[in-house]
Amino acid sequence: MANLSSLPPLRSPAKAGARRPAHGRFAGGAGDDGAGDGPPPSRGCRVGRVNGTLPLVLALLLGGAGALWAASPAMPTKRPAVPQRIVSINLCADQLVLALADRGQIAGLTKNATDTEMSGEAAKAQGIPLLSNSAEQILAIEPDLIIGMPASRSAALRALPSQSYPLIDLATANTLDEIHMSIRQTAAAVGHPDRGTRLIAQMEEELAGLPKPGNGRVAAYYQRRGYMTGTGTLIDDLMTRIGLVNLAGELGKPPLSQLSLEEMVAARPDFLIVESATDTVTDQGSEMLHHPALQDIPRISVPQAWTVCGSPAYTQAARSMAAQIAHIDGNRT
Amino acid sequence: MSRLALPRWSLIAALAALTLAAAIASLLFGSVDLSIARLIAAATGDGDMVARVILFDLRLPRTLLALAVGAMLGLAGAALQGYLRNPLAEPSVLGTSNAAALGGVAAIYFGLAELHPAVLPLLATGGALASLGLLFLLAGKAESPLTLILAGIAVGTLAVAGTSLALNLSPNPFAAMEIMTWLLGSLENRSFDHVWIALPCIAIGTAMLLWDGRALDALTLGEDAAQALGTDLRRTRMRLLIGTAIGVGGAVAVAGAIGFVGLIVPHLIRPLTDRSPSAILLPSAIGGAALLTLADLGVRMVPTTNELKLGVVTAFLGVPVFLIHLMRERRIW
Q1: What is the pTM of this model?
Q2: CATH code, residues A218-332
Q3: How would CATH label the architecture of A86-205?
Q4: Which of B114, B167, B189, B299 would best serve as a mutation to test chain A binding (most A beta carbons within 10 A)?
Q5: Domains of chain B by range and CATH?
Q6: Is B50 in contact with A265 (Cβ distance < 8 A)?
Q7: What DSSP character marks residue A192?
Q8: Which residue numbers in chain A have pLDDT < 50?
Q9: ipTM of the complex
Q10: What is the DSSP string of A256-293?
Q11: SS3 assignment, position B10
């Protein structure tokens, strides 16, 4: 029962069975979900040919799961061990699912999942259906696991007839520890806890020898239209890790504040950290980051894909930032 | 009213003094408090870096643009009101500014502006010219002043819709914010690059519009009388069309569609003159420069979390003028 994926003949009837509750509004207990009377006759026939114990296992599995879904949707412990139609409804969850689940397990990701500027795992997402966060699409897929950040607050899910899918609510990860927690949580949910442990160990290893070239110098993470990222954020955690001090903290600004060009010039940070997407001027919002008044402040450019979510790309971001500081210092001397 | 009429030179001198005061205030105040002594030191070349950058790279281009754009809009309003003999004619009411914004948006968001610095003002001018052409086609010969305003509303609405559509079609996830800037106008974070884009266009536009003062005076007697007096109507119209399009196009390309300056200023100036169209051209240009510089100063001084858009301030000033005229019209009905 534990490892469904090792029993290929079971998978399609399992789908057929699981599809039924949605049509029948979860009337099903074990008996109803039995393989014999499933609506698609071909699938029913296939199950019929398998030996006698399998339908029973199947019935127990689906019936038990079905009843649980109806009763307490968010209970992670009683789901089928390895979900086969995972839907992610959040960009950050996309990245974790892609890193930890098998490709075949993933039934849907958000529409930005293949955007290389926004997701560090975009390459892996090619070919997986992208959903536009509509209740209809989720309904049609009938996921056996929905991962969001948090999933339970999604408007699309609220629109569904009954909140009847197992949900995983990930918390926003703003520190390395919180990223590790999300990885563990996701890995367990998708049925591969060992992968999570391995990924965390790998991240720890990559960060172990990281220098702190910042030396207490002040940096500002300056975004389009003058938004500055403050303390308590992932960016702040990254800055601290490589020895930089966040200007927003020095100025006592909230996690997201707006700082005019004048104020930035007056504050004179040692570094500006910018998203690499704003390296070229594409609109008025990014144009301001290229204002001549800022040209004397050295820049560290980091792809948004690494920093917008707490994800395994954290280590890449930290290493890249440290290397860029070392490069800037090298050019000065 | 005529007792209010001042000798022409004293009116111009008073307006110039007001404009100068506004410009100096615009250099003195910003989001960072800099003492006057520090600014003077920076201006004379031996100040600190921060003050110098703030004064020369941030406040000076912004002030120059406010003066130039304001002058252009004020003058365009005065010339259009004179030529069309319609007190409500001005670039934003007639849709010219919005059409120029559409051209600017197309240039920036589809990457055309990167090809050559002249593309942005060219497309903005093209947009303005197209809208004026369409307007004259729709309502050029109409007797009622309302027909022209209605045609202007139609043209302007089309341009606004086109701008929103262009931004929605462009691969820019920050479109909403950008639309607001383009449609309400802003001089935030402008640099000398923008000054060099706008100034040549505005200089050409201003020269072409100031040319026609006497023709506009003759037109107050009606088109036939003006022709009898030796006015070449076709040439006058061409100069007016092209001058407005180039000037407003250049202004909008860097500042967005700032509304109502061209409406308010001639109405404020007119009672102080002999009310002939030629007499209000130059004073309207100077008055427009003063008004927009003061409005831009207001935008910086009002403590809002996001900087106020210029169009918001000018609309608050301009709508009452519009309403007063509406009430007068109703009395005539």
Answers
A1: 0.77
A2: 3.40.50.1980
A3: 3-Layer(aba) Sandwich (3.40)
A4: B189
A5: 60-332 (1.10.3470.10)
A6: yes
A7: -
A8: 1-79
A9: 0.79
A10: EEE--HHHHHHH--SEEEEEGGGGS--SHHHHGGG-GG
A11: helix
